[in-house]
């Protein structure tokens, strides 16, 4: 029986290995992690991450050919294929601080693999890593190998949170990069054989190592670029009276552009977009490509501008101060159908409002109070370290109240901010919300999911990104 081990039981490693176990019943899959609490959750009734369909997959396979364990060395030693899906945070100090990826955890994993292995192995990069990481890992393994042979493959993940299981069941492509040697091609074929259990062969793309590594960064950079582009247009729409939804629909009908990732919002979030672009910027700078680096920097600058603009719109609408005012925050996850808060725009929006001494009442159906308080107290990039290395849970902020009901969040509030596009927010009783709010009652739709005209008929003063402004807003300053 082929044995697979995945180091890292997070958002990528857990779901990916669960689906491999489901689709390949003759392969034994072990997911290992140093976090005792995380592994306990994977083995329990409450999985450590929320993803539609994941629980059903895990339940079918767990204990049969899918195992979660903290006995890392045992499972790595026994494995034929080792996936490495560890944290690759952005460096906060030293060379490349603020841009370069910190490969401390990757290097540690590679050294451990070299120390415990007693048979030849295929080592697969599953984390998003900088170009040429495979070369560094290869050097570590081969210089500590004791005659054991390793092949390094890059197999970046392209799943989207919220639809991860369906993305894994029916991927638009699986990318495998390896050495262009007989041994490298044999390793590529071994991994292709795993995915071929359920993925059509024409969707399994093979490249050299460097192309696979760069393709992941490029894919996320292109997607983030589209979001920043439409968000830049949203600011112009507000200034001119155009409607960004209509503009997006019109340009999305162009088959050369297409309709996806053209929804204007308060900004993009998630674990990959900003981190990967910063990584791309650093690689460009290291290769003397200053103009290319500056181009990609602008994608992040526009994203930051959009979040700042949203906060400024809220403050300026409320007579230039939110000090002591209650603001309801509906949604804290970076997108619907996930509990993931990494780089969520809600963090920057909340911090901006807290900086003006607002009182926040936050509701998200999947994010815990502890996570929200942690996110609002952490320094930038701390979130990407293993949880045991993150700051301990801080004392609850007196300015932040986390509730488990949208109506409770909005009760006696001066304004409501929609920061995640959860479906339930589209069907709330906004007349009831209006009746229980302070007046004038404001709604700031950061996801463009609400019927603006109906809200105005109720009596709300409404701001929806990229939509024609209320007369109330036309005289207020909202530049970042």
UniProtKB/TrEMBL annotation:
GO biological process, any: UDP-glucuronate biosynthetic process
Start and end residues of each UDP-glucose/GDP-mannose dehydrogenase C-terminal domain: 328-452
InterPro entries in UniProt: 6-PGluconate_DH-like_C_sf, NAD(P)-bd_dom_sf, UDP-Glc/GDP-Man, UDP-Glc/GDP-Man_DH_C, UDP-Glc/GDP-Man_DH_C_sf, UDP-Glc/GDP-Man_DH_dimer, UDP-Glc/GDP-Man_DH_N, UDPglc_DH_euk
Family: Belongs to the UDP-glucose/GDP-mannose dehydrogenase family.
Protein name according to UniProt: UDP-glucose 6-dehydrogenase
Major enzyme class: oxidoreductase
Naturally occurring in which organism (per UniProt): Citrus sinensis (Sweet orange)
Keywords noted in UniProt: NAD, Oxidoreductase
EC number from the UniProt entry: 1.1.1.22
One Pfam entry name: UDPG_MGDP_dh
GO cellular component, one term: nucleus
Pathway involvement of the protein, from the record: Nucleotide-sugar biosynthesis; UDP-alpha-D-glucuronate biosynthesis; UDP-alpha-D-glucuronate from UDP-alpha-D-glucose: step 1/1
Regions annotated as coiled coil: none
Catalytic activity of the protein: UDP-alpha-D-glucose + 2 NAD(+) + H2O = UDP-alpha-D-glucuronate + 2 NADH + 3 H(+)
NCBIfam families from the UniProt entry: NDP-sugDHase
A GO MF label: UDP-glucose 6-dehydrogenase activity
PANTHER family xref list: UDP-GLUCOSE 6-DEHYDROGENASE (PTHR11374:SF3), UDP-GLUCOSE DEHYDROGENASE/UDP-MANNAC DEHYDROGENASE (PTHR11374)
Chain sites annotated for binding NAD(+): 8-13, 33, 38, 86-90, 127-128, 161, 272-275, 342
